[in-house]
Amino acid sequence: MRILFISRYLPFPGGRENFMFELTKELSKEHEVALITPDGLLSEGFKVYKYKDDYKEIKRIIEDFKPDVINSHTFYLCDHAQKVAKENNIPFAFTIHGNQFVIGDEQRQNLVRKVSEKSDLVITVSEDGNRSIQNNTQAKNIETIYNGVDTVKFAKDELAKERNLLRKV
């Protein structure tokens, strides 16, 4: 499967960015993965495209990569990609991290509403986020997929090793 993600990414700091790092790294082991991002151009075995707020550029990237699905994790970066996806019958999923109807201003809320309602699937990372999308949008297909934790990385012994390494630096 060819999966195109749109998201903020490392080195931009945040939970979503770390989540995207792990997600793209793991999925690229079995799928063709690409990422459109305004941030760093780090990759772990997948294509990275620099985001430009330009319809023609987004269209060129999508036509070049030919994704089976597009998944945006950043609501303010997906307007052009949603249009191109619709024009080319490519399923478009929108994953929202956090509840913009609680923390976002009216402009952000309106944008989240618009993106949600135009998406084929809205993915939330919590039940609270799911209820918020249901209560504030006309989105039709909403699913909750919880963020996972790498239990090996966060095992007690691994954390102790990591802490000791950090102290030596």
SSE class: alpha/beta
Quick check: average pLDDT? 86
What amount of the residues lies in strands? 15-25%
Low-confidence stretches: none
Evaluate the radius of gyration.
17 Å
In DSSP terms (H or I, runs of 4 or more residues), the helix count works out at 7
Run of helices and strands: EHEEHEHEHHEHEH
| Biggest sheet record | 7 strands, parallel
* Arrangement of strands in the largest sheet: 3-2-1-4-5-6-7
Q: How much helix is in the residues?
A: 40-55%
- Tally the beta strands: 7
Termini separation (Å)?
41 Å
Shape: globular
Structural overview:
Strands 3-2-1-4-5-6-7 form a 7-stranded parallel sheet, with helices on one face. It contains 7 helices and 7 strands. It is an alpha/beta fold and 169 residues long. Helix content is 43%, strand content 18%. The chain has helices at 15-27, 55-65, 79-87, 100-103, 106-118, 127-136, 156-168; strands at residues 2-6, 32-37, 47-50, 69-72, 92-96, 121-124, 142-144. Strand 6, helix 6 and strand 7 form a beta-alpha-beta unit. The longest helix has 13 residues, at 15-27. The chain is globular, with a radius of gyration of 17 Å.
